[in-house]
Amino acid sequence: MPRYLVTADPVASFQPRFDTTLRLMAELLARGVEVDYCDLFTTDMSLETDAWLTALPVQKVLWSDPTRPPYVGLGEVRPAAALDYDVLVHRKDPPVDARYRGWAERFAALDGRLLQLNEPAEVLRHSEHLLPTRFPAYAIPTAHCREFAELRETVRMQPVEAVVKPIGECSGIGIAFFRPDAPEPALWDWWQQYGEAVVQPYQDAVTTRGDLRILTIGRRILGSVTRLPRPGSRLANLHQGASFHAFDPTPRQLEAVAAVTADLVPRGLYLLGLDFIGDLLSEVNFTSPSAMVQIGEVMHKRPEVELVDELEALRRGFVARA
């Protein structure tokens, strides 16, 4: 029987109503798979990489049930080596800060010796906000601003309004809207708080069609859901009060999904959340893509079953290649 290790934030921070990790662990356990959990914040970062990878503080997952508190049962903490497992599932949420990068760099040192979702070396190589630039035929034009002068000039160049995002954040944190004539002090205040930025032209479709999420594992689409901003807002993130609804992907969106997965899956970015505004790709989420629960509700199915089917297929394929 395969062994899985889930690395994540502290379980106290999980949000059971919409948590993907709890449902993933529950489905694995239902199949008789052995699952352990590692709270990354409890790892000893003073250790050298090799020692760190052989002394991970793990706990056996006894049960996982997002419908009743305390939602997950854990055994005693014990040390384990990453290579004791067949699959590492990384579910640490952004921000992608120095601490996040430190964990990912250590897991990246495993260098293909076991299946990791998603492959840490590739996670470190890319930005969720910038990855659409790899697919310009399908994406919203996206600028990367490393200096304040670049941010100021990029905002000035927008035809109507700029959407400015912190490069390492998620869930709508720090997103701001600036018209081309925005006062420089307002831009500077944003820069002082968040720094390195991603800028895109504002898309009106966000308030009519919403922010469309298509969740994939390998080349398989697990489902889709659209998130509409609450009245008076233009932020379509569920953490910012957006609602979610069913939608059927358009042919153009499906074409983009095929192009993105064909490029990224062979690199080890297996689990992806592709976000569209209208037919244009706005982000490619790969750190810990969510929306599986919302997809299940609007599509009346259990996508975690399909997710684990594909994980097991990937695991078997990885073993066969080795």
TrEMBL record:
Segments forming domain Prokaryotic glutathione synthetase ATP-binding: 128-298
InterPro entries registered for this protein in UniProt: ATP_grasp_subdomain_1 (IPR013815), GSHS_ATP-bd (IPR004218), GSHS_N (IPR004215), PreATP-grasp_dom_sf (IPR016185)
One annotated GO molecular function: ATP binding
Gene3D superfamilies per the UniProt record, alphabetical: 3.40.50.20, ATP-grasp fold, A domain, ATP-grasp fold, B domain
Domain Prokaryotic glutathione synthetase N-terminal: 5-102
Pfam families: GSH-S_ATP (PF02955), GSH-S_N (PF02951)
Protein name, UniProt field: Glutathione synthase
Species assigned in the record: Nannocystis pusilla
